[in-house]
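Notebook B, p. 112. Complex prediction, attempt 2.
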Amino acid sequence: MESPLTIIIPVRILEQIHAHGEQAYPEEGAGLMLGLEDETGRSIKSLLFLENAREEDARHNRYLITADDMLAGERSAEDLGLSILGIFHSHPDHPNQPSEFDREYAIPWYSYLITSIQAGKAVGSKCWRLREDRSGFFSEQIDLAD
Amino acid sequence: MPTLKIPTPLRPYTSGESAITLPGKTVAELLQAAVQRHPELKKHLFNDDNQLRPFVNLFLKEENVNHLGGLDTPLAEEDTVLIIPSIAGG
């Protein structure tokens, strides 16, 4: 499970994630990554941009995707013949490393893509997965595709 | 018997099964039957105090069971309960 894992993300999709994070700044933006997985790895095909459901005064350092949004996301993914493979969210003026809060609430298996937004500009993304014992995250390599 | 649908992230703990048919007259009984059959599932559904983890949500007929009778919501033989995670972080 913790051997180097790779996730393929088309450049245009990563650009959309960055734009969404910049638009949400100074709050955190979030959404779902839909795609396909086989024995060779994961490939992201589409995004679902969602409202950060946290209360307004918490949205600068917290995000929430509600169960209702996840249920709707599952339905959308099914309609497209895809699965929810992960979640993207932004860290305004913070690095793209998972926070302790991220770890506490993370779910195994999902890919967590974090984008650092510095002074309103996306400066880079990294992808992570929760360890089986919930002790922390390990890195998932992003391979950019055309 | 009612059916419990398992979201993709939890299928590694149910031998890959996406839906499990189990005995249970309430949502709580259905969950207990699920963790008895697949003990690995327990730590991801319940915390150390045996409380449902905050990101675990249960839906019956498109309705969150919190808006019905919670874990005591009665189930009919043909009912399907969905486990839907909510996602939080910072």
